What does this fold into?
Amino acid sequence: MENYHEELDRTFGALSDPTRRAILTRLEREDRVSVSELARPFAIKLPAVMKHLDVLHEAGLVMRSKVGRTVTVQLSPEPIREAMDWLRRYERFWSASLDRLAAYAEGKEAEMEEKGG
Amino acid sequence: MTSLTIVRRIRARPSLVFDALTTSEGIARWWGPDDGPVLLAETDLRVGGRYRVRFRMLDGSEHESSGEYLEVVRPERLAMSWRWAGGEDPGQSLVEIDLRAIAEGTELTFTHSRLHDEETRRSHEAGWNGALDKLERHFLASLEHGGAK
It folds into this structure.
């Protein structure tokens, strides 16, 4: 359980930065992108981009591979899926609860109307 | 995506919905993700008052959540903090419920937010909703193509 939450923290933490989100969004469009190509649209220097990639890699959000002298980066969607599952548990909880709440309140309303309330 | 919003139209007047949301008798009838029983429902319905609800699921597991009422405006609005007992999900989140009278009864707008830590809250405000949505779409697309596990 601890590990699970640590992983979620890392996922959400990694997603909390606009540069990292921009990198992920680009990787969503393009399957494999080299590090230098990834760095190109940003005003920041390559080492700063590398740092962001480290955070994304640490969170398991990207995979890196080296072909010759070029390092390419690829999206790894598994941690996103876990974060989504976690949110969906809340959705199931409340959706089922509110369905029963509605049925209960509607029963009460019908009772009141019978009594002429 | 760290906040969850659900809207329901209910054929009952707002005061009845509000009471169902806030009385032990009402809570015992609906709280929980399946048809398992509510084992305990305590409410001290005033700003600063606390609530505590324990329920058992059909798989036999028991869960408890508690918190503090932050806003109590019968029959329009209820806000409360939310925390799971034990190690289920660390941290505190926020539940807000607005009830609006409509011709057929009540429109209930439910929001559970701040569902993760401080950092998430900030990032949520910074708008990673859209980014996450896109990534989810990507994930679903790769699933369809059999590309992801």
